[in-house]
Design brief:
Blueprint: H1 20-29, E1 44-50, E2 63-69, H2 84-91, E3 101-105, E4 108-112, E5 116-118, H3 143-158, H4 161-166, H5 184-203, H6 208-213, H7 219-228, E6 237-239, E7 248-251, E8 256-258, E9 265-267, H8 269-280, H9 284-301, H10 309-335, H11 346-362, H12 371-374, H13 397-410
Helix pairs in contact: 3-9, 5-7, 5-10, 7-10, 8-10, 10-11, 11-13
Length: 422
């Protein structure tokens, strides 16, 4: 969840009936007029408000945020934990610079609101506080922030997953559906199965015509599944799984905070690195540095956690690129649904993004870009996700625009699944 002045959508009595979480935020704030939100975010309905003086959080935070899961969402990622709040509660004092959290009764939790700037160039100062200097978009991380990120990976892998169960952090997946500790191949196979079965085939059913016009099928996932058996064993650990620039906050003191843990899971620690590199889009030299810092951090935390990482990272990056095709095609249709599709410039901007995602997934990474991150020989990537190997099979920008326009003329995304802008 990103909090920026231009991204805030305040709900008023005239705009829509107050939801239960909105009413609860008003009660906790002692002044409903000072509640801001719902804030932009896909998975949760979130509100922020100044803390009363008697709050346990008020000594360290000026504001708190109250979150509740949005019902009826299309989940693009496999979930592991039933409650982000309970997970954060269990991690207090074990991971540095994550939101402090308290229970205020009835199973309701408040998180301290981290005010600062996101690494995507956005601001997280609430109205009335003044805007800080923005973190320049595209700027590399400072050494201080790289050090803090390395420390975070070390702390994450240092946590024994069994200790979370002992702290009553419930998991949503049945025991029979969990992979054995260290079985990285089975872990990736489960992720591929979720993308194919839940995203592409089940929830993607209304978008099949759009997929067809873009030349997207499930063949790339089939190829990745065949390669998954080659992954080396690594002891499983806690993963964040959503370490992108909007979830990394630089506070007023210049320290880096990690927010939004709803996609956290237990699994192969190398997957967290692959997800982070994929989402951050670091310059190549910086990405290589992050990868080697990660290797150093996780090995210090638990021996064997980086075993075979140079050979396995390209395959996990290939999965992330392929996964982005299926999720981004659907997400873009959702975000452009209804009146949004007629917004000036919205479709052209989205089409450029989708075209880049398709091109990245169709690129054969054998001996290519990912090799430079690790020094390894590389792995067969996702060439063919668009139905043909190489760039020749990737739709052009104009073809992507036409595909979405054709689809919107005959179909509309389910209203219940339409997320807020983020």
């Amino acid at each position: 969840m990103i909090m920026s002045t231009e991204g805030i959508r305040a709900m008023t009595a005239d705009a829509a009936p107050a939801s239960e979480v909105r009413r609860r935020a008003g009660e906790l704030s002692r002044d409903s007029r000072r509640v801001i939100g719902p804030l932009n975010g896909y998975h949760h309905e979130t509100y922020a408000f100044p803390l009363p003086e008697e709050s346990e959080l008020s000594a360290r935070f000026e504001r708190a945020k109250l979150r509740a899961p949005r019902p009826g969402l299309l989940w693009f990622d496999r979930r592991c934990f039933a409650s982000e709040d309970l997970l954060l509660t269990a991690l207090q004092g074990r991971i540095t610079r994550i939101p402090e959290i308290i229970e205020v009764g009835g199973g309701v939790h408040l998180q301290g609101f981290i005010e600062g700037v996101t690494l995507d160039g956005g601001a997280r100062w609430l109205p009335g506080r003044g805007l800080p200097g923005r973190y320049p978009l595209g700027r590399g991380l400072s050494r201080r922030h790289h050090d803090q990120l390395e420390c975070f990976f070390h702390e994450l892998v240092s946590i024994d997953p069994k200790a979370l169960e002992e702290r009553a952090v419930k998991r949503v997946c049945a025991p029979a559906d969990r992979t054995d500790d260290g079985d990285s191949a089975a872990f990736l196979d489960r992720l591929i199965g979720f993308t194919e079965g839940q995203v592409y085939r089940r929830h993607g059913a209304p978008y099949q015509r759009l997929f067809e016009e873009l030349g997207v099928d499930a063949e790339a996932l089939v190829r990745l599944r065949k390669r998954a058996v080659e992954l080396r064993r690594r002891p499983f650990s806690l993963l964040h799984c959503d370490l992108h620039r909007k979830n990394l906050i630089v506070d007023r003191r210049g320290d880096l905070w990690i927010i939004d843990w709803e996609l956290a899971m237990i699994g192969d620690p190398l997957y967290d690195l692959a997800t982070h590199l994929h989402l951050m889009r670091y310059p190549r030299r910086e990405a290589a540095g992050v990868a080697h810092r990660w290797q150093r951090a996780v090995e210090r935390a638990r021996e064997g956690s980086s075993y075979g990482w140079e050979d396995d990272l390209p395959l996990l990056l290939a999965y992330k690129r392929v996964q982005s095709v299926y999720t981004d095609v659907i997400r873009t249709a959702l975000l452009l649904g209804g009146r949004r599709v007629r917004a000036r410039g919205a479709l052209p901007r989205a089409a450029w993004r989708i075209q880049r995602v398709l091109a990245a997934a169709a690129r054969d990474t054998s001996g290519g870009a990912d090799q430079e991150l690790t020094g390894a020989a590389g792995a067969t990537g996702a060439a063919g996700v668009t139905g043909a190997a190489g760039a020749a099979g990737v739709p052009s920008y104009r073809q992507v625009v036409a595909a979405y326009r054709n689809w919107f003329r005959t179909a509309r995304p389910p209203e219940a699944l339409t997320p807020s802008a983020s």
